[in-house]
């Protein structure tokens, strides 16, 4: 009896030691593994603009979960605040224009473009130069001596120059006035305080609905794009998470394009479409994920050098990361 108990006791001791050793090993291995939230979370800065709508669609439809990535959308009231957060490393990515990409690199924040947001085709992300309701300016010939409201050294300034040059208007014939805040620019146009202004949609459509006249818009040619960009450091630390976030943006963009009515309420809310346009303004469509062309990037870089915004043009390879579009 004592012998049987002794053997049984030995077995219990051996099993207990094995469980203890296994438990310690498993705990140590778990501690050495990066936590899921640390390895996968991607913080994206967003503004209330239509270019960011796929982020909210992906959130609503659970696309981030399907891609195995945690995404945190961080809202900002202005591009300046968003870019400052990008510089400080508080967010990993954002949708912005090519000027913002170059300016971030200029101040020492290395970033890479993953894909176009809006603007893969001329119909996406419209900009327009409009004349005020009572200006009497009905065509581009009337721009000679007129005041053009813009945001100096911005994508608005770039697009204005390209449209005017393409249509044979001499830039020196137009008096530019820098009015950085778009709502103020819109109000000054509609109240005839300035003759003309360059505005993006939906404000361009709102101005038109309130009596302004479209002199030219950029739907005839692909002049501008927004791009989805990331801090290079974030890409290096979390390449698979970044790729997954890009895939989710692309999947959501296609869902939105295929079923715009399904996301109509979400669009009106997140893009802050003016009340006067809620019934008439179309939900945007998004092209499949793709990089901007070298020509599109080079055109912006050349303009920025001419404006002395950057000391020299960045090469295409310095600005894009094609690997982020791979699975």
From TrEMBL:
- Compartments it resides in: Periplasm
Residues making up the signal peptide according to the UniProt record? 1-29
Among its keywords, does the record have Lipid biosynthesis?
no
SUPFAM superfamilies referenced in this protein's UniProt entry, alphabetically:
Periplasmic binding protein-like II
Q: Which UniProt keywords apply?
A: Signal
What highest taxon heads this organism's lineage? Bacteria
Q: What is its main location?
A: periplasm
**Gene3D superfamilies linked to this entry:** Periplasmic binding protein-like II (3.40.190.10)
Q: Which family does it belong to?
A: Belongs to the bacterial solute-binding protein SsuA/TauA family.
What is the protein name stated in its UniProt record?
MetQ/NlpA family ABC transporter substrate-binding protein
């Amino acid at each position: 009896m004592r012998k049987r108990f002794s053997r049984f006791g030995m077995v219990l001791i051996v099993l207990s030691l094995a469980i203890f050793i296994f438990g310690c090993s498993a705990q140590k291995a778990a501690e050495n593994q990066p936590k899921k939230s640390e390895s996968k979370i991607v913080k994206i800065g967003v503004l209330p603009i239509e270019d960011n709508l796929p982020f909210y669609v992906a959130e609503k439809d659970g696309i981030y979960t399907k891609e195995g990535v945690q995404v945190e959308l961080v809202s900002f009231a202005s591009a300046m605040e968003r870019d400052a957060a990008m510089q400080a490393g508080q967010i990993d990515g954002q949708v912005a224009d090519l000027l913002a990409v170059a300016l971030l690199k200029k101040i020492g924040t290395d970033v890479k473009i993953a894909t176009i947001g809006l603007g893969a085709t001329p119909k996406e992300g419209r900009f327009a130069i409009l004349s005020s309701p009572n200006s009497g300016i009905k065509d581009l010939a009337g721009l000679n001596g007129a005041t053009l409201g813009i945001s100096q050294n911005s994508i608005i300034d770039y697009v204005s120059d390209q449209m005017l040059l393409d249509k044979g208007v001499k830039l020196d014939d137009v008096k530019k006035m820098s009015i950085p805040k778009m709502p103020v620019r819109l109000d000054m146009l509609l109240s005839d305080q300035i003759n003309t202004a360059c505005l993006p949609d939906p404000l361009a459509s709102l101005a038109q609905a309130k009596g302004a006249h479209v002199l030219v818009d950029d739907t005839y040619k692909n002049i501008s794009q927004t791009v989805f960009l990331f801090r290079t450091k974030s890409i290096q630390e979390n390449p698979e998470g970044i790729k997954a976030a890009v895939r989710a943006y692309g999947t959501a963009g296609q869902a939105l394009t295929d079923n715009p009515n399904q996301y109509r309420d979400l669009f009106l809310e997140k893009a802050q479409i003016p009340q006067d346009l809620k019934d008439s303004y179309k939900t945007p469509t998004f092209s499949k994920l793709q990089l901007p062309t070298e020509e599109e990037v080079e055109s912006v870089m050349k303009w920025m050098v001419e404006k002395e915004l950057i000391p020299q043009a960045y090469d295409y390879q310095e600005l894009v990361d094609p690997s982020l579009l791979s699975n």
